[in-house]
Design brief:
Layout lengths: L1 H6 L8 E5 L4 H13 L6 E8 L6 H14 L4 E5 L2 H8 L3 H20 L3 E3 L4 H14 L3 H4 L5 E2 L2 E2 L7 H10 L16 H17 L3 H30 E4 L2 E5 H5 L3 H15 L8 H9 L8 E3 L4 E6 L2 E6 L9 E4 L10 E4 L5 E8 L12 E5 L7 E4 L6 E5 L5 E5 H7 L12 E4 L2 E5 L16 E8 L18
Parallel strand pairs: 1-2, 1-4, 2-3, 4-6
Antiparallel strand pairs: 5-6, 7-8, 8-11, 9-10, 10-11, 12-16, 13-14, 14-21, 15-21, 16-19, 17-18, 19-20
Helix pairs in contact: 2-8, 4-5, 6-9, 6-10, 10-12, 12-13
Length: 479
């Protein structure tokens, strides 16, 4: 097991690692494996337990994990979350909501205590389930690799073990764990694959199939790495940067293997999209067809991305006419790091730059119309960059030392913004609460004050808001 850790260079001396421990068999095994490895390698651990608010006995799980940590003198952090409420607000599954909340918690606490990696307890069965889930839903090569041993700062030391081996490890050492009753239901797609597909395959089709699927996943991961390298070479050979995207040589593109052609177009479109998502096979097919069509042919993709043929060149670029009410991007707190900027192209309306700063100098609040500060620790959910929606509101001063809600519509009327231009507003929002009408007002609730510990700085760059609802700019300067 330790050889798997070392093969993938998961832990090096003096690492500080967040360990996600739910109390179930997998995560408890992970904790004890790392405790054993710590006798060999000098590194530190801190445990994070997330209470999803889904089960009545969740408090008992948290208490059990806290006691394990106390017994072994490991720092323990408890995070409570309303996963069902988050799923309803974000219009996603409970399973996806839980995953997003967990990783945001790991990332946030890791930044706060200086931990650079997070260890999670996925095993070979999880990897096989993920491979099948992606296969059934339709996936490229990358998705069929399933879960990888290392992904950025996330490490998975148990990915070399099957679930039965994990339980045997704990039983042999007389280590107790908590059972999660939701794993026995068929409420989630992953559970149905586990109970009805993989179990049937193991018993009736090919005993040991989970282990063989892991071997296949490793081969696919190697192939994916090679294909990605070839795609980057093709990009260097076939494309040159253009003002709004890329120019692709038709002649050079046609010499590529069809598999690399598709991957190259996907890479270009993904780099132009704000989230890297929502680019599908149908869009890549439409772009591919431009290389067979006469000059002046064109095709529109999501996020204002456009492909067009001009003589012996195909342009893949951002449309300058993208409207913000057709644009949406999500900013997870886990993507924001102190003193490191994150930039998101808003689709023809400029680039929003996000950076987390220390609150020590919060008295120096910028007066710039296009640079705003927010109290970072008041932001509890992912932020959305989008156009206006029904129910949007800001918080404003009530003149008595308190704050009250004011609908976005009321704000726009008070600002005498013409009705036909209100949909041009670009918003930064948490749920329906608008933090900033970009170029206009920010919400009173999120303003920094003397108690602010961390500041989220958001700056609008490189934009001219022609006919916009909140002003115009051509450069970033104080006004």
């Amino acid at each position: 097991m330790f050889s798997f850790l070392e093969q993938h260079h998961m832990i090096v001396p003096h690492d500080h690692i967040i360990v996600g421990v739910s109390g179930g068999a997998d995560s408890v095994c992970l904790l004890f494996v790392l405790l054993e490895y710590a006798k060999k390698m000098d590194f530190r651990m801190s445990v994070v337990h997330v209470d999803h608010g889904l089960r009545q006995d969740a408090a008992e799980d948290a208490a059990y994990v806290e006691k394990l940590c106390a017994d072994h003198k490991i720092p323990f952090f408890l995070v409570r979350a309303d996963v069902k409420g988050f799923a309803a607000r974000e219009k996603c599954s409970v399973e996806d909501a839980g995953r997003r909340i967990r990783y945001e918690a790991f990332s946030r606490i890791g930044r706060e205590i200086g931990a650079g990696k997070t260890a999670v307890a996925h095993n070979r069965n999880d990897r096989a389930e993920t491979m099948l889930l992606h296969l059934f839903r339709g996936s490229g090569l990358k998705g069929l690799c399933g879960i990888l041993p290392v992904r950025q700062e996330i490490i998975r030391p148990l990915l070399c073990l099957e679930r039965g081996e994990i339980e045997a490890y704990l039983t042999e050492r007389q280590i107790a764990w908590r059972d999660d009753g939701t794993n026995d239901t068929d409420d989630y797609a992953r559970n149905r694959i586990r109970h009805h597909v993989l179990s049937y395959a193991e018993k009736e089709l090919a005993r040991g199939c989970v282990g063989r699927m892991a071997y296949t996943a490793d081969l696919l991961a190697e192939t994916e790495d090679y294909m990605e390298r070839q795609t980057l070479l093709a990009k260097a050979e076939c494309t040159v940067p253009a003002k709004a995207g890329y120019r692709v040589s038709v002649e050079a593109f046609k010499k590529l293997h069809p598999a690399i052609q598709k991957r190259l177009l996907y890479l270009l479109a993904r780099q132009l999209s704000p989230t890297g998502k929502d680019i599908e096979a149908v869009h890549i097919k439409a772009l591919s067809e431009l290389f067979q069509k006469p000059s002046n042919a064109g095709v529109d993709l999501p996020f204002g991305i456009r492909g067009r043929r001009s003589y012996d060149t195909v342009f893949v670029e951002k449309s300058r006419q993208t409207r913000p009410d057709h644009f949406e991007a999500t900013v997870e707190k886990g993507r924001l790091c102190e003193e490191e900027s994150l930039s998101i192209d808003t689709g023809g309306r400029g680039v929003l730059e996000f950076m987390v700063l220390s609150g020590r100098n919060c008295e120096e609040v910028p007066k710039n119309q296009y640079t705003k500060w927010f109290d970072y620790d008041k932001i509890e959910e992912p932020l959305k960059i989008r156009g206006r929606e029904t129910g949007d509101f800001l918080s404003i001063s009530d003149g008595k030392g308190g704050i009250r809600h004011k609908s976005l519509k009321e704000y726009m009327i008070a600002q005498k913004i013409p009705k036909e231009k209100r949909d041009d507003a670009l918003l930064l929002a948490q749920g329906r609460h608008v933090l900033w009408v970009v170029g206009g007002r920010i919400s009173e609730y999120y303003k920094v004050d003397k108690n602010t510990k961390r500041i989220l700085q958001v700056k609008l760059l490189h934009v001219t808001l022609e006919n916009g609802c909140c002003g115009s700019r051509t450069e970033d300067k104080d006004e």
